[in-house]
Every structure is written in structure tokens, then in C-alpha cells.
Write a structure and sequence with these properties.
Blueprint lengths: L1 H18 L14 E7 L10 E6 L9 H21 L3 E2 L8 E9 L5 H8 L13 E10 L5 E10 L6 H22 L1
Parallel strand pairs: 2-3, 2-4
Antiparallel strand pairs: 1-6, 4-5, 5-6
């Protein structure tokens, strides 16, 4: 009899506890969500007025059309130059006269996986994939012109905004560049 009562109490307790479990609902994905990370590799600083040059890097195979890739790189190059100039640095097209080089690349997750970014670049912001939106990455680094060593690396992941105007794209690109570069300026 005691066993039956103990069993009944245990069964009732299990049913009661399982009925109290709530399953959290997933948060809806925000298309404007960004994940940003950066790392300072060596403690070299650059004075305002230092010259820099751009060194864009391209993914070998991309799902974008060449004109789409070129347009995206142009937006990012313009935003990087404008942001660095705003912080007192000078752009030069002559890489031999620059104090540091700014390398950067852009890719969709379908063309450059998080694993590859982590293996080749060393940092990944970790924005989760989403079936509804196309995830993309913007990678940027500062390389010392004299030594060739990477001084700083930054990575941003977000979702591609394919249906916005060029003016909106320009503003979004500038905001993305500014947010990641803020981390460089804080450690420079």
C-alpha cells in the first residue's frame, strides 16, 4: 500500500512539474541587428595626420554579380576613407607613402562561412544565421606599412538590405564602418 501511495505521489509530482514548464518563444529577428567584434594585435598607435592606403580583398567566388560586388566595395571604401579622415588621418593612393594599410572585405555567408572567417581572420562576431534574411560579413584590418604586421582587426555581421536606395545604403554603410572603427580609435 505504501508503495502505491509513494508511486502515486511521485507520478503526481512529475506531472505537476512538467505542466509548469514554459517554453520561451524565440525573439523575432531584427533585420537591422549587427554583431561586432575586434581585437588589437600589437600596441602600435598612429598619430593624426598619418597617411593610410586602402587594400581591398575579394572573395574568389561570389554569388553576387560583378557590378554588385564593385558597388558594395565602393560604398565601403568611401565610408572607410571618410571615417578615417574625420578622425584626422590622410588617404593616399600611393601605398609606398602610407604609414598603415586598411584592408577590408565583404561577403555573404553563402560565399564565406563563419568557420572560414574564424580560421582565416581569427575573429567572428557570431551573428546567428536566419532563413528569412541573407547574412553578410564586413571584415577590416589595420596593417603596419613598415613591418607588415596586423595591428588591429574588426568584423561586423548583419543582414543584407537588398531593397534600399543608394542613399540609404550609403548611410547604413557609413554607420557600420563608424561602429567598428570606433573600437580601433578607442585602442589607438
Amino acid at each position: 500500500m505504501k508503495k502505491n501511495i509513494s508511486f502515486a505521489v511521485a507520478l503526481f509530482s512529475c506531472l505537476f512539474v512538467s505542466a509548469c514548464v514554459t517554453v520561451p518563444q524565440e525573439k523575432p529577428v531584427n533585420k537591422n541587428q549587427l554583431a561586432i567584434s575586434s581585437v588589437r594585435d600589437i600596441p602600435i598607435s598612429y598619430a593624426q595626420g598619418s597617411q593610410f592606403s586602402l587594400a581591398p580583398k575579394y572573395v574568389k567566388e561570389t554569388s553576387l554579380k560583378p557590378e554588385q560586388t564593385q558597388a558594395a566595395y565602393k560604398f565601403y571604401a568611401n565610408a572607410i576613407v571618410a571615417d578615417l579622415k574625420k578622425h584626422g588621418y590622410r588617404n593616399t593612393d600611393d601605398a609606398s607613402n602610407s604609414v598603415f594599410h586598411v584592408g577590408f572585405g565583404i561577403a555573404l555567408a553563402s560565399d564565406l562561412s563563419d568557420e572560414t572567417i574564424n580560421d582565416k581572420f581569427g575573429i567572428t562576431p557570431g551573428l546567428p544565421d536566419n532563413d528569412e534574411f541573407r547574412k553578410g560579413s564586413f571584415l577590416i584590418y589595420i596593417e603596419d606599412a613598415l613591418t607588415g604586421d596586423k595591428v588591429w582587426r574588426g568584423a561586423v555581421q548583419g543582414f543584407a538590405h537588398e531593397d534600399i536606395s543608394d542613399a540609404e545604403r550609403e548611410q547604413r554603410t557609413a554607420a557600420i564602418v563608424s561602429r567598428v572603427m570606433k573600437q580601433f580609435y578607442a585602442t589607438n
